[in-house]
Amino acid sequence: MRRKVLRDSEPYTRWREIPVYLTTIITAVMALALIGCAMFESTGGSVKELAFVVPRRDWGNAIALWLYPFIGSFNIFTALAIYCFYGVSVGVESHMGRSVLVRLLLALIVVPAAAVTVLAYGFNMPEALAGNSDLLFGMLVAFATLYPNVLFMNVVAFKYVAAACIVFVSLISFKRLEILPLLPMWSSSLVAFLYMRHAVGPGSESPLPLGARMRSLFRRRPKLRVVPRPETSPDEVFPDNTEQDEAVSAEVDAILDKVARTGLNSLTEAEHRKLQKAREELQRRDRR
Question: What pTM was estimated for this model as a whole?
Answer without folding.
Answer: 0.63
